[in-house]
Amino acid sequence: MAAAEEDFEFQLQQEEIQQHKREHGDPFTYTDPDDGTVYEWDQEKLAWFPKITDDFIAAYQANYGVTDATQQRTASTTQQTQQQQQQKKAKKELKPGEKRKANDPEWFDVDEVKNTNVYVSGLPTDITDDEFKDLMQKCGIIMEDAETGQPKFKLYRDQNGQLKGDGRCCYLKRESVELALQILDNYEFRSHTIHVEPAKFQLKGAYNPALKKKKKKKQKKEKNMQERLLDWRPERKEPLRPKHERVMIIRNMFHPKDFEEDPLVLNEISDDLREECEKFGIVKKVLLFDRHPDGVASVAFKEAEMADAAVAALNARWFGGRQLNVALWDGVTDYQIQETDREREERLKKWEEFLDKGADIKKEVTTEATTSTTTTTTAASSSTAGESDRGKTEG
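The chain above was modelled as a monomer; its predicted structure follows.
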């Protein structure tokens, strides 16, 4: 019964709305009886606003006056309002659960402010890539491809693979484009007058999404590339050497048993080795693998060339009665030897004995010093007493 009553009331409301439309027109519009201004109801803001029509604009211009700029802004506002109304209407027409169709894909123009490409024409048809690169570098740094690391320029060819006499170059900075237009436009190059202009990209054929490059997360890589290109320091002409070639390995420098009696010898050898190696360059780290049976030590230099000089000077030299075997580290071999639990206990036991021995020696030295001081004091007292007795006798 309740559902039937609700349906009946809803039907009565719809009939009243239809009757109001027939008598008064659209229920969402209102005409002012005094001046005839038409207002429309904004459902979102819940308020009446003047309806923007051609008659309303003409009446507004006649009453308040308008300039050309104002007319343009008004026309733009009118167009935007109409577009918004069409969008709202399209949303209302959507059925429940139906999604709005996306806009058809299309090519977009490159922003002039961000465009760092220039188009060059009038080039010789036998120009090489190196010649074109040297020519364009006169006006700035050429961008490098983030994937290949190669400079981004191109000489165009025809269907037969022959050069057409034109090309494109991508600079790192926008200022280089302006400089190229001033310097290289109408520039004489090998008896050819070349022409330079900002590059324009046009669509050839129908739009194909498969040809569009996919966006990749390479902002950090591109930033590092730009910082390297803008770095003022000169580039290394020789290829960079591996980091492990900065480390020098020395064999037969000691024997593990050398540290059993006096563990402090380890520090003495390390200090002597650092002092000797600093003659060849900056030493970053010195390690002694005291458990290795071959008596291995390693020295890390700041540069590989420093390690080369140290190897050449120290190999086959004698140290503490042992002939050294010196070479660069291969980057793979691990000279660290892990001790077992038993070996660790023995090492700690020997270390305690060493400390106790040192404490006993210190105690003996202190006792001897105290005894010597007491003896000296007694002798001095006896001497003073004897002199006093002699003085009394003489008196």
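Residues 117-202 form a domain with the Alpha-Beta Plaits fold (CATH 3.30.70.330).
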